[in-house]
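Q: Second attempt. The first request was missing the SMILES, so the protein and pyridoxal-5'-phosphate are both included now.
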Amino acid sequence: MNVITEKLAIRGGKKAVPDGTIKKWPPIDDTDRQAVLDSLNGANHAFGPNCQAFEKEWAEWNGSRHAITTNSGTAALHMAIVACGCGTGDEVIVPAYSWSSSATCILQHSCIPVFVDVDFNSINIDAAKIEAAITPKTKAIIAVHLHGLPCDMDAIMAIAKKHNLKVIEDACQAHGAKYKGRKVGSIGHCGAFSFNQNKCLCTGEGGMFVTDDPEMLAAAQSLWSFGETRAPSESRDYHVYAMGWMYRNNDLTAAFGRSQLKKLDGFLARQKENAELLSELLRGTPGLILPREIPGAEHNWYNYTMRFDMAELNRRECPPHLETLGGQEKGRASDLRYKIVKAMNAEGVQTGVWQSFILPAMTVFQAKNGFGHGHPWSSPHAQPVDYSVGQYPSAQRHCDTHTGMTMPLRAPNGEEAVRATAEGIRKVMENVGELK
Ligand SMILES: Cc1ncc(COP(=O)(O)O)c(C=O)c1O
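A: Got both inputs this time. The predicted holo structure:
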């Protein structure tokens, strides 16, 4: 591999990724325009025919029996908590590193999140640490397929079976990712997808709840539509039977989703090709830990996440304790990480820092005050829970040393964008001494 000795863009050199190289996501064509226009010209813009068709088509595509279209992935996760029969004070196990709502969805039903550290290699929940977190109050485990890499589902399902727990798959980033040949979302008891702007299927905002179980479907549907028992497409009595929200999707968004779904397999294939090429081009770059796949798991490459090997970069590792929160402390691993990311951005590489806090470090958990008066932790139904951040060293190490990108992996980007991005990353890593 030739070492790149050109001047870094952050020091006034030429950018490795010229402006305009990376194309925006998602690709929109006339089929999308026509689908949305047809919905607009139709008679039902609320929960209309496109919503019902989208549910059916998504369920078929994913290998799930039932689907409910929602206005976000977070809504679908909240529905999953309810579908699992969780109630005030019940505990739900969740990884210590994820998007905030993988954990706040638990609070939304007055339940208590119990965090488990991640495995540094996969960045997913460390299945070997789950059993130690189970108590008589535990009802469910949320398996987040982070960045599109499936969790170790055999191990998680076996633990759930042994302890009579439900498994919720947070597949919000993992459309089309497979574990032992099965699409994620169809392996646990229920699952949630997001169709937000950045996701592998984009409808602007939106989501989908999936399950094979008709009772879980009914519970989720009730929460989804005001606590009623009938869907808006049925004859409703408008009676509220249980606590409900308004999580329904609308027809225009569903029309957009249906037309994108027709192209999703092609988008995912391109994403995989791009990720594989990027890994090939970056292999051997000093100071970089590249993403890995685990046996039996097929990544969808939603986010290409690398870690900086701080030991190799001659810096001390970030000690996993409270003072290290938020990338603020001087001399921290993450200070160097932010400098490297800034230099890569100057080269035109669209990489960033995803979550700069592990979940238990977030104020809502440290303050234990979700709804005022300390609820739900103060409920007589809840038992004390410890959120000391030192319990999650792998999540903290990942949090402080990662950088990740969704571009240039997304279609329609291809070889040109990937090669330029790899060049920008290597250029910075090979000249990292200039940043110290
Ligand atoms: C892992 C994970 N879970 C849940 C969500 C929530 O999805 P939404 O933004 O559609 O509510 C996201 C979205 O960013 C996510 O990445």
